[in-house]
């Protein structure tokens, strides 16, 4: 019967993944949004199912949450810029200069850090940045010191963690730039810099934006790195974690969690306009 | 198309609500169990939760939620082990989870996955009011009679003369410093507040709203004009003063700690050199640090073993509560953690014979001078009736603001 009814076949094939997407994924998000409209008894910590917008009112009126939101977006943006600046030359070398053998080796090298656990890498940076760590040891003879734990440490560590996610899409994007275009540019008198600036960069831009979706969204939701190397600073993820994990205020945590969702929706809408989503 | 789409959306939303309702069903039980009531009992009545009448056959395991260092099974240090003897004696396998803060303990108890918890005074009333813990039948506990009398029937562990747990031990939060760096040795909490800039970028503090009480305690001694009588009973102005002090402190803080291992690591690497601590942390780090009780006195804890209202292994839970308050176990925990044991018979069993004198275990006057962690509520705990105090929710918001 399935042979004669292609519609049914496709339907059966697609039902489980669609159910997963619809119920588990979107359902969880919907549940989160519903929770954010409830409130909590401060003393017992029990959730009270009374409809209220208090959580959002608090989120928008208490100054500290605005500061934290702006700080989080700023850090995510900085990490993205740092990664883009670091990734572009590496990806360009991989795609256009290196021999096929070197190319393969470099791809493996870029992927290697992904084999190690996220936590191990973050703790490795904690050791690096420590008062008795290698950075202090190298910097001290020059009268400098380790940046210590704080926002600079967070930016360094996050840039390190997410760099492969930027390099790979940019590398893929640059591979698609035909060599003939580069030759044409040089035939017409364009030097290396001019070629990169006027031919390669415009063509690689959607790939850069595609990579930035990863680095930006991953940074936006991170809270573990901040706890390990962030010193006293806190990001949106920490506010969610503290309210859910410590203060037990799930409704407010849910309200805070909608902020990165909104930011990412706006970001993705902008990314779509430059055609970056086709480069993913 | 439009119609189908909105139908799908509605279905998804319903599924979400359903999933949520079942997920929350367990955690919100007893929320109607009362919030406001008589003043003597800290402003609430306890929800009606049945008490166990007898100890039946052990279930074979018990899930223990404890402060770090309260249930050691030899995995940290081979010689530190009082869980294994319990397992052999009772036939209950002990599954231990350590928590970092009282907030986390309250949160984890709501999951219903733990049978017993070592709750501090800033968690006990919240657990009782939330219906998360059951009254404890002290007649079933052979060691209860030996517990120091000044720990029984206290505001934070009983309601209307009914005990909700068995006292475990008590102690003070201490000021720890790196002996090589911090000279001269500090004698006042001022070292981490007004004089914190001496060690700028190397100060540490406890990452929990309850730490606001440490600032309030310091203000109580240094700024009598504020009129703070009890560091857990702060009106708006007093809380604001404490928040200002903590904001000024933050500029000199390297990082806050809540996980005790994080503080151990930070002191070992030299990233922190001075800050609040527990004796067990100082003991773990070793000789490079010293921990002192500053002249202003201190905040501290008085812990109680409580049993979950949803305990799956209540018999093993009772066996654990009885075991952990036995003189032998108490002597080991108290010496390892660095606190006064609740069972004073333990004093004869400590390896250091003067241990109980050092920790004033039998000295009820000393015990009354420590400001034990208590949940702040809007009804002022110091007896003021002309004003409304800030509650724990206000403290939580204030703590987020302090950290910026």
Explain how this protein is built.
The complex is a heterodimer of chains A (280) and B (404). With 280 residues, chain A is mostly helical. Helices cover 74% and strands 1% of the residues of chain A. Chain A is built from 12 helices and 2 strands; from the N terminus they run αββααααααααααα. Chain A has helices at residues 6-35, 54-61, 63-97, 100-111, 118-129, 134-139, 151-175, 179-187, 192-221, 224-229, 236-246, 250-273, and strands at residues 39-40, 47-48. In chain A, α3 runs parallel beside α7 (151-175), α5 (118-129) packs across α7 and α8 (179-187) crosses α9 (192-221). The radius of gyration of chain A is 23 Å and the shape is globular. Chain B folds into 2 domains: 61-170 and 300-372, 3-Layer(aba) Sandwich (D-Maltodextrin-Binding Protein, domain 2), CATH 3.40.190; 174-297 and 389-403, Periplasmic binding protein-like II (D-Maltodextrin-Binding Protein, domain 2). Chain B has 13 helices and 15 strands. Chain B has helices spanning 2-25, 83-90, 102-109, 121-129, 212-222, 236-250, 260-269, 279-285, 314-324, 327-337, 355-358, 364-369, 392-403; strands at 61-66, 93-98, 116-119, 133-134, 158-159, 162-163, 166-172, 174-178, 203-206, 253-257, 274-277, 289-292, 299-308, 340-341, 371-372. In chain B, strands 1, 2, 3, 4, 7, 13, 14 and 15 form an 8-stranded mixed β-sheet that branches. Chain B has a 5-stranded mixed β-sheet with strand order 10-9-11-8-12, covered by helices on one side. Chain B has a two-stranded antiparallel sheet with strand order 5-6. In chain B, a hairpin with a 2-residue loop joins β5 and β6 (162-163). Chain B is globular, with a radius of gyration of 22 Å. In chain B, 53% of the residues are buried. Chain A: Residues 69-271 form the ABC transmembrane type-1 domain. Chain A: Belongs to the binding-protein-dependent transport system permease family. CysTW subfamily. Chain A: This is ABC transporter permease. Chain A: It is found in: Cell membrane. Chain A: Keywords: Cell membrane, Membrane, Transmembrane, Transmembrane helix, Transport.
């Amino acid at each position: 019967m399935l042979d004669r009814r292609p519609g049914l076949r496709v339907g059966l094939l697609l039902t489980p993944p669609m159910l997963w997407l619809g119920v588990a994924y979107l359902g969880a998000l919907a549940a989160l949004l519903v929770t954010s409209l409830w409130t909590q008894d401060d003393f017992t910590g029990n959730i009270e199912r009374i409809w209220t917008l208090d959580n959002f009112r608090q989120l928008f009126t208490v100054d500290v949450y605005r500061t934290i939101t702006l700080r989080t977006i700023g850090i995510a943006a900085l990490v993205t810029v740092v990664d883009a600046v670091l990734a572009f030359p590496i990806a360009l070398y991989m795609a256009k200069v290196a021999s096929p053998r070197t190319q393969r080796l470099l791809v493996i090298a870029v992927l290697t850090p992904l084999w190690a656990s996220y936590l191990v890498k973050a703790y490795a940076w904690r050791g690096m940045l420590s008062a008795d760590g290698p950075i202090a040891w190298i910097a001290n003879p020059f009268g400098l010191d380790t940046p210590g734990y704080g926002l600079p440490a967070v930016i360094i560590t996050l840039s390190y963690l997410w760099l492969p996610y930027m390099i790979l899409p940019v590398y893929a994007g640059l591979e698609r730039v035909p060599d003939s275009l580069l030759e044409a540019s040089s035939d017409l008198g364009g030097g290396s810099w001019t070629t990169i600036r006027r031919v390669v960069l415009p063509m690689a831009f959607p790939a850069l934006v595609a990579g930035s979706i990863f680095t930006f969204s991953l940074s936006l939701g991170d809270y573990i790195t901040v706890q390990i190397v962030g010193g006293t600073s806190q990001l949106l993820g920490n506010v969610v974690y503290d309210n859910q994990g410590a203060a037990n205020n799930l409704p407010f945590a849910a309200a805070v969690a909608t902020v990165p969702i909104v930011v990412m929706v706006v970001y993705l809408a902008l990314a779509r306009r430059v055609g970056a989503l086709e480069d993913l | 198309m439009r119609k189908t789409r909105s139908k799908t959306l509605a279905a998804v939303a319903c599924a979400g609500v359903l999933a949520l309702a079942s997920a929350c069903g367990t955690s919100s039980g007893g929320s109607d169990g009362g919030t406001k009531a008589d003043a003597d009992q800290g402003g609430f009545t306890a929800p009606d939760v049945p008490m166990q009448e007898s100890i039946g056959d052990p279930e074979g395991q018990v899930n223990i939620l404890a402060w770090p260092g309260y249930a050691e099974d030899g995995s940290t240090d081979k010689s530190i082990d009082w869980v294994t003897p319990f397992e052999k004696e009772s036939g209950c396998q002990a599954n231990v989870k350590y928590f970092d803060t009282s907030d986390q303990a309250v949160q984890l108890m709501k999951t219903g996955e733990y049978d017993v918890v070592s709750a501090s005074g800033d968690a006990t009333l919240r657990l009782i009011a939330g219906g998360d813990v059951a009254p404890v039948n002290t007649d079933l506990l052979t060691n209860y009679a030996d517990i120091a009398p000044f720990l029984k029937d206290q505001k934070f562990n009983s309601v209307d003369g009914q005990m909700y747990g068995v006292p475990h031990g008590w102690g003070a939060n201490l000021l720890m410093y790196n002996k090589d760096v911090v000279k001269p040795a500090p004698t006042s909490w001022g070292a981490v507040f007004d004089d914190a800039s001496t060690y700028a970028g190397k100060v540490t503090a406890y990452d929990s709203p309850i730490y606001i009480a440490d600032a309030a305690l310091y203000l109580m001694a240094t700024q009598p004009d504020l009129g703070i009588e009890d560091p857990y009973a702060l009106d708006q102005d007093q809380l604001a003063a404490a928040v200002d002090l903590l904001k000024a402190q933050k500029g000199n803080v390297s990082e806050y700690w809540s996980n005790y291992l994080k503080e151990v690591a930070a002191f070992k690497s030299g990233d922190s050199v001075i800050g609040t601590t527990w004796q067990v942390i100082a003991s773990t780090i070793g000789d490079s640090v010293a921990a002192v009780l500053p002249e202003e006195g201190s905040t501290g804890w008085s812990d109680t073993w409580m049993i979950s209202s949803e305990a799956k292994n209540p018999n093993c839970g009772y066996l654990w509560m009885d075991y952990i308050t036995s003189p032998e176990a108490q002597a080991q925990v108290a010496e390892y953690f660095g606190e006064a044991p609740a069972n004073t018979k333990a004093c004869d069993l400590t390896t250091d014979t003067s241990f109980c004198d050092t920790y004033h275990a039998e000295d009820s006057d000393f015990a009354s001078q420590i400001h034990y962690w208590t949940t702040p509520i809007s009804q002022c705990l110091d007896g003021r009736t002309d004003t409304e105090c800030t509650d724990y929710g206000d403290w939580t918001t204030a703590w987020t603001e302090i950290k910026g």
